[in-house]
Specification:
single chain, 71 residues, mainly alpha, 69% helix
């Protein structure tokens, strides 16, 4: 039986911002894009780049589309 690999460093670093990004995005009723979500995270003291925020929002939307059939 193969060993389960440890999570990669990038996945570990993105676990915390992903939850916060989802929270801010949902609180805006999915209206805020990456620039506004990035600004909100910056105000809260979370260090996360705008491009990372954009990538994680896109990934979240793809998952929602696959699971629910609607963005």
């Amino acid at each position: 039986m193969p060993d389960i690999p440890a999570p990669r460093a990038r996945a570990v670093r993105e676990a915390e911002p992903t939850g916060k990004i989802t929270e801010v995005h949902r609180s805006s009723r999915d209206a805020y894009g990456a620039p506004r979500v990035h600004a909100a995270l910056k105000r809260e003291g979370t260090a996360c780049g705008r491009r990372r925020v954009a990538r994680l929002i896109r990934a979240r939307n793809r998952i929602l589309l696959i699971v629910t059939g609607q963005p």
